[in-house]
Amino acid sequence: MIRELKSMCCSLYDEEMFTQMEWHVLNTLEWMIGHPTVDSWLQLALLEGPEYEDMTVEHMSWYICEMALYHKEFVSVKPSAMARASLALSRDILGCPEMDTYGQVDSELMLSLSRQLNQPSSVLARKYAAPHLSRVSEVLRRFLLQQAAMSQCHVTPPTPPAEPATNQKSMQQHDVYSTPQKVYGQHVINGYLTPPITPEGEYFGPGNGNEIKPYQTSAPRCPITPTPQTQMQYSQQQQYQQQPYQQDIVMQ
User: Fold this and answer.
1) What does the DSSP assignment read for the chain?
2) Where is this region: Disordered (predicted)?
3) Residue 84 belongs to what domain range?
4) For 204-226, what is each residue's pLDDT tens digit?
5) Of 132, 155, 178, which marks where a domain is finished?
6) Is residue 218, in this structure, part of any structural domain at all?
7) What tens digit of pLDDT does each residue of 77-87 get?
């Protein structure tokens, strides 16, 4: 085609001059001709933000993009999406303020990239450890160590399971001898329970119906209240004093 243009112009211009004229027209129109690679999209993104003067953000973005080349899951990702995600992730690592254009970034892509940060290639890490590349590989390594230490601080050690109280109580009962206790019913009819008395004297007489009965499992309906010893002695003395008086009345 250039030869046709040259013949049309009566060979007044060389072929190289047509090429220079084409570049001059494209520069005047501010057009960029080339393959849409990640680097080209990254350069466009850097021109729009304040990172243009900060070379550390650009070098970190390069490092993350080259790290993604080792994994096949990022082959089908569009260069524009990869450039925005790597730039956003670089700003987060370096502690830069967020941009308004981050709403267009795919969060799942950023998460996938962040999972690959802890396993970079040794050759790639040595390459980006150079001073002219801002030593971004060392910066990223320190950032990952700091994040791991913070995650371990938030994890609390598990507490051992406590033994049930019933098991401890049963073990104590098996080891220590105890006095058997009387089991009362669930419902008491009236009043409070009074302690049973120990019968003495004529209470054990035969034929009185007061023989010792087997052990009862329920509380008696009318519990017996013990009578004080002093009151019993006083009633017996009055009974002895009244007997002679009654005999005198009968004889008269």
Assistant:
1) -HHHHHHHTTT-S-HHHHHHHHHHHHHHHT---S---HHHHHHHHHHHSGGGS-HHHHHHHHHHHHHHTT-GGGTTS-HHHHHHHHHHHHHHHHTPPP-GGGGGS-HHHHHHHHHTTTS--HHHHHHTTSGGGTTHHHHHHHHHHHHHHHHHHHPPPPPPPPPPHHHHHHHHHHHS-----PPPPS---SS---PPP---GGGG-TTSS-PPPPPPSS--SSPPPPPPHHHHHHHHHHHHHHHHHHHHHHH-
2) 200-252
3) 38-155
4) 555 555 555 544 445 555 555 55
5) 155
6) no
7) 999 999 999 99
